[in-house]
Amino acid sequence: MRTKGKLYAAVLGLATAGAFVLSTGGASGHGYTDLPISRQLLCADGTVRGCGEIQWEPQSVEGPKGFPAGGPADGQLCSGGETRFGQLDGARTPRGAEWPTTKVTGGQSYTFRWQFEARHATTDFRYYVTKQGWNQGHALTRADLNTTPFLTVPYGGKQPPATLSHSGTLPTGLSGHHVILGVWTIADTGNAFYACSDVTF
Predict the structure, then answer these.
(1) pLDDT (tens digit, 9 = 90+) per residue, 28-79?
(2) Which InterPro entries does the entry link to (predicted)?
(3) Torsion region of 199: left, alpha or beta (phi above 0 gives left; psi -120 to 50 gives alpha)
(4) In Å, what is the CA distance from 33 to each residue of 21, 166, 194, 198?
C-alpha cells in the first residue's frame, strides 16, 4: 500500500510538473496592445474567428527590429513576418468581414496600452499610421504608412510593468478607416513586437 501511495504521489508530481511546463510554455510569449485593440487580441478574445494559431498566442507577434528600414517584409507587417500568424495580414478578417475598428479623433490625446506576458529590456515604443487614401485592398505595406512615427516613447533599456500605458496626440487630417502599427523594440535582442490596430477617424 505504501509503495502504491508513493507511486501515486510520484505520478501526480510528474503530472503537475508537466502541467506547469505547459502553462509556462508561453515563455516565448511577450506582449500586445489592447488600446486600441489589436488584430491579435480580436482573434484571441473571439471577436474575430478563424484566425488559426494567433488566437492562442496574441503576445507572440515577434519579428526583426529596425522598422521601417528593416523589420518584416511588406505584406507581413501585422504578423511580424511570422507565416503562422498570416491571418493578421489580410485586408479582411479570415472570414471575409471588415476588421472591427476603434473610433478615434485626430488631434486629440489617446492612451495606448500594452499587456506583457514576458517583460524585456525596452528601447522604445513607436506608432505609425496609414496615409489618407491608402490602399485598403491588400496586406499592409510601407507605402501605405507614413513611415515617420507620430509617437515615439523612449524607454531607456528598462523593463516595463505587466501593463503599460502612455499617451500621445493622434495625427490630424485623417478620416475613415486606418491602421495604426505599434512597434515595441527590444533592447537586448534583434527583435521587436508588432501590433496592428484598425481605427476609424
Answers:
(1) 448 999 999 999 999 999 999 999 999 999 999 999 999 999 999 999 999 9
(2) Cellulose/chitin-bd_N, GlcNAc_Chitin_IntDeg, Ig_E-set
(3) beta
(4) 26, 12, 9, 12
Strand-pairing partners, residue 154, are 124
Element (H, E) at 177: strand 177-186
Residue in this structure with the C-alpha cell 506547469, named with its chain if needed: 20
Instruction: Put residue 80 in one of left, alpha, beta given phi > 0 → left and psi -120 to 50 → alpha.
Output: left
- In whole angstroms, how far apart are CA 101 and each of 47, 120, 191? 12, 29, 27
CA distance 100 to 24: 31
**In order of start, what are the domains of the chain with their CATH numbers?**
28-200 (2.70.50.50)
